[in-house]
């Protein structure tokens, strides 16, 4: 099965991608993983991407797309894959469609994790990171025994800038502008399925697997 997972930041894409890819026995392919593999492997594309990253610039689409194309051609992706974090916009979606057509393949399903903005803010703004060991806690879902202190190492907990409400709201605006139109694109293709991504992780996973069932039976 060939799947794309979409949804706003904080929707739980990374967590659900792990469960779904394991359930379907297909590789989870995220742009973050691809970048790290290329940079650490010192590939030509990795060196090119690192130049941009070192300057603090966004890696251009053509470099990202070339990395994705190479990854989809690897042996473990021949029987299926789950893409997380790509495509991020409609032009990338059109390019992915062309890449797959060249390989005589097509997407089976695009699974959208649907969650409202206030829930995203609640999830992300509650995160606290340990200055010492880097463990992430949550003031509601996974609080430490003592407020502001890490249970693991006793380090001070702090709120990262990108976990502040105003930053999260801005990221959601960017998502609405750039990535949300992706849902319309795939709805027009007839392969979009949306699920409610609120509630406990296990319940969301059950909904995701139930949405996949008609395509895997």
TrEMBL record:
It catalyses: AMP + ATP = 2 ADP. Signal peptide: none annotated. One of its GO terms (molecular function) is kinase activity. Zn(2+) binds at residues 130, 133, 150, 153. It is found in: Cytoplasm. Residues 127-162 form the Adenylate kinase active site lid domain. ATP binds at residues 10-15, 127, 199. It comes from the Bacteria. It is an enzyme of class 2 (transferase). Its EC number is 2.7.4.3. Keywords: ATP-binding, Cytoplasm, Kinase, Metal-binding, Nucleotide biosynthesis, Nucleotide-binding, Transferase, Zinc. Residues 126-163 are annotated as: LID. The keyword ATP-binding applies. Belongs to the adenylate kinase family. Consists of three domains, a large central CORE domain and two small peripheral domains, NMPbind and LID, which undergo movements during catalysis. The LID domain closes over the site of phosphoryl transfer upon ATP binding. Assembling and dissambling the active center during each catalytic cycle provides an effective means to prevent ATP hydrolysis. Some bacteria have evolved a zinc-coordinating structure that stabilizes the LID domain. Catalyzes the reversible transfer of the terminal phosphate group between ATP and AMP. Plays an important role in cellular energy homeostasis and in adenine nucleotide metabolism. This is Adenylate kinase. It comes from Actinoallomurus liliacearum. The lineage of its organism: Bacteria, Bacillati, Actinomycetota, Actinomycetes, Streptosporangiales. The gene is adk.
């Amino acid at each position: 099965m060939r799947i794309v997972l979409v949804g706003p930041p904080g929707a739980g894409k990374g967590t659900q991608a792990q469960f779904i890819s394991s359930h379907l026995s297909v590789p989870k392919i995220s742009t973050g993983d691809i970048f790290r593999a290329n940079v650490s492997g010192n590939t030509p594309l990795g060196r090119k991407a690192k130049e941009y990253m070192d300057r603090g610039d966004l890696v251009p689409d053509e470099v990202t797309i070339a990395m994705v194309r190479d990854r989809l051609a690897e042996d473990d992706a021949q029987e299926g894959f789950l893409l997380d974090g790509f495509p991020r916009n409609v032009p990338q979606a059109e390019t992915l469609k062309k890449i797959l057509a060249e390989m005589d393949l097509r997407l089976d399903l695009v699974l959208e994790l649907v969650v409202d903005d206030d829930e995203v803010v609640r999830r992300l703004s509650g995160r606290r990171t340990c200055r010492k060991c880097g463990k992430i806690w949550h003031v509601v879902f996974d609080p430490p025994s003592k407020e502001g202190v890490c249970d693991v190492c006793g380090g001070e907990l702090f709120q990262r800038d990108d976990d502040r409400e105003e930053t999260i709201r801005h990221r959601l605006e960017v998502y609405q502008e750039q990535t949300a139109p992706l849902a319309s694109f795939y709805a027009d293709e007839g392969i979009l399925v949306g699920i409610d991504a609120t509630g406990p992780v296990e319940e969301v996973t059950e909904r995701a697997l139930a949405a996949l069932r008609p395509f895997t039976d």
